[in-house]
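Suppose you are handed only these lines of text.
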Amino acid sequence: MRLENKVALITGAASGLGRESALLFAREGAAVVVVDVNDAAGQQTVEEIQASGGRALYAHADVSREEDCAGMVRAAEAEFGALHVLFNNAGIMDSADDDATTADLEVWSRTLDINLRGVLLGCKHGIPALRRAGGGSIVNTASFVAVMGAATPQIAYTASKGGVLAMSRELAVVHARENIRVNALCPGPLRTELLMKFLDTEQKRQRRLVHIPLGRFGEAAEIARAALFLASEEASYVTGTSLMVDGGISAAYVTPE
Ligand code: NAD
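From them, the structure of the protein bound to nicotinamide-adenine-dinucleotide can be written out as follows.
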């Protein structure tokens, strides 16, 4: 088991990538702190882990609120004694997010608050706990759009993920000598609620699919396996990098059929 005796905190673990990662990390031996704002679905993730013999705890936290982030880390240490893996994964993509000329500044602020400030606050309160544990691994969910343009305009989301990617590099350098690794995970387009709500017509979905060499959306479970690698000791010499798990989108010009 790759996370035996480890404690992992995962934000956004009520759905999609966070939920699949919580289930996988628990199967690999971790005690998992499931964090979300959707209490009913978060609790379900916990119950599923416990039903298969794993250890898990639900902590309600809105990652854009500092006191909530302090609380989720306190809950991890109080219940499981330490924190070794911090997976800052919670994120939103607002369906009103658009191009720069039509940008709604409330959408901009909400997106930046959750997607970028949320990662900062996770680190602000999580890093002291990782230090107390003698080190650990931070995985921050960015996106392929952090490094390339998106075919469907979503300026606030893209800016937030660019920030996560840049911030992850600095965090990695600053905290390397504390035995804390920090990496950004860059998923391609996934068949999760977040994207399917945004690409709400067949035309929009096809417009995105045309760019993906593998010809399909990714599954949350496929990205969770990459998160597990970064979280575990298998990635002991991996820090400050970004792992693209994108069905080939960043590697090729694609000829539409
Ligand atoms: P999802 O919508 O299925 O899950 C996101 C979870 O985050 C939900 O459970 C939601 O309740 C929670 N959340 C939202 N706001 C929160 C807040 N303020 N505090 C705490 N939790 C909050 O989405 P997903 O596709 O699993 O996305 C997970 C991450 O992956 C996000 O950061 C997203 O930006 C990123 N990502 C997704 C895709 C994609 O195509 N779906 C691609 C690249 C990156």
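What can we learn from it? The first helix runs from residue 16 to 27. Helices lie at 16-27, 39-51, 66-80, 105-132, 155-175, 193-198, 202-209, 220-231.
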